[in-house]
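ok trying again, last paste got cut off:
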Amino acid sequence: MKTDFNIAVLPGDGIGPEVVSESIKILNAIAEAFHYRFDYTYGLMGAEAIYKTGNPLPDETLEMCRQSDAVLFGAIGDPSFDNNPDAKVRPEQGLLKLRKELGLFANIRPLKTSASLVEKSPLKKEIIEGTDIQIFRELVSGIYFGEKFTDEEAGYAYDNCKYHRDEIAPIVHMAFKDAQKRRKKLTLIDKANVLDTSRLWRKVCQEIAAEYPDVELNFMFVDNAAMQLILNPKQFDVIVTENMFGDIISDEASVIGGSIGLLPSASIGNGNALFEPIHGSYPQAKGKGIANPIASILSTAMMLDYLQLDQAAEKLRQSVEYAIENRYVTVDLNSEQPYSTGEVGSFIADYITYSEKSYYNFENVKLGKSTIV
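nice, full thing came through this time. structure:
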């Protein structure tokens, strides 16, 4: 069994470096507890890369990611670009190019509500309790990668959405296989009453469904799906959808769990994989120590799954759940007595290393005192 791994680390923009730093702290605790070795190589991407090189994805960063066992990424985006519609080079172009160059065709976003956090959701407890959804979003095709054109003089622009069945089939197979391991229900979200690309998605899904007779296949228009996620999220098991719909639907689903700072993601290809929290760069929180690191840390757990370090991944998830249950969390989840980004990461890392023999006095933590003895 392989025990040494090369990890490409892309801290990115805004709070990205802060949350990734906590994930590295966690990986170091995992390495010590399970006798693994993680070697880290850092690279530039996003706004920081533009400021320093003029390129949102420098060639050396791309090559570093190609040579790694996995990529750990923070966040991307900067207000100076967001507020400038005339900017020709943007941070997000770096991430889009990286996904395309590495062939990361499948973005997987799990959403599972925690019993101790259901009161943090804007939705009623009885609606969201027990929600467990896995969203598969196609990542390297569709409208984000289609031909784009702007005619400033005439005052019009277009973005083409284009799909080939060969771009649809791999992620549909992946979603069906995952559904077989879960509750055996797959929902395709599309807009087949309007869009030709959606009708192609339906056709391909129906053809592939014959190979998975034990999985129930359902179809739902994206506008209805957006409503159903709020009205009855527990009806969904595995969702598969195209690029833009997946981007929107998965961000909407994030509020169900109580905070977007909780949700991880994995972007998987045939030979590479990237792991990142689904939240953005949150520039308003940069440097304040208030960013929730749990989404990044749970993305690290997904990375351990990918590296087939199952026992370590399970221990990491148990440690995160322990922190949540004891309200050792950031201000978005505990406004009365919040802990900093670094304190949350240290608590989780400490539990990985020591469990019940931790230096933390867990009885005091439960009382909200968090003294170290």
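cool. Confidence is low (pLDDT under 50) at residues 369-373. The longest strand covers residues 4-12.
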